[in-house]
Amino acid sequence: MPTPVAAFVRLVTGVNRLLFFAAAGLMAVVIPAMLYEVTSRYGFDAPTVWGMELATLLFGPYFLLGGPYLLHQGGHVNLDLVHRRLPARWRRAVDLLNFPVIVFFCGVLLVYSWPLAVQSWEFGETSFSAWNPPVWPFKFAIPLAVLLMLLQALAEFLRVLFRDPAREAAREAARQAAAAEAAP
């Protein structure tokens, strides 16, 4: 793999890995908030106005920002049963077709999600609940996550195109482990 391409792939994957763990850290806020809400509501008959809404607002970025690194890990739902039984050459061909489709789809989502996030910011959109937090920061998580997914799909495409041997060896080991686990 050419050095600039390898640097791009490492940078994108590194940023997505960092955001993956940062998004996982959101659970350190959501879980105590939900415990407090449930205890207040059912233990003291005094529900909060913010507990459930905070959890709802944080779950969006949690799922969205974890997706790009999950693509790198091969953790998304796919036709793995078919994919793993294909010869290596066919798997590569399928991947070389699959990643550009993901890039295209993310490009379309980015074109439509960015103006909505900007509009939300311009209007200072809030939730209109009793707590009434601003929602525009959470809406920006959508185009950000879509952009990161697009970049990760491009990085994975380049990795397959230039046949990164380390990545192929890791995938093959994972395939063999899954096949051994599935065998009766």
Please tell me about this protein's structure.
The chain has 184 residues and is mainly α. The protein contains eight helices and no strands. The protein has one domain (3-182). 80% of the residues lie in helices and 0% in strands. Helix 3 (51-73) packs parallel to helix 7 (141-161).
How many separate domains make up the residues? 1
Number of strands: 0
Whole-number radius of gyration?
Answer: 20 Å
Number of helices: 8
Strand content: under 5%
* Secondary structure category: mainly alpha
Percent range of helical residues: over 70%
Shape: globular
Mind summarizing the main beta sheet? Answer: none
Question: What are the low-pLDDT stretches, counting only 5+ consecutive residues below 50?
Answer: none
Average pLDDT, all residues: 89
Spatial separation of the terminal alpha carbons? 39 Å
Order of helices and strands: HHHHHHHH
What topology does this entry show?
Elements: H1 3-25, H2 27-43, H3 51-73, H4 80-85, H5 88-123, H6 136-139, H7 141-161, H8 165-182
Helix pairs in contact: 1-3, 1-7, 2-3, 3-7, 5-7
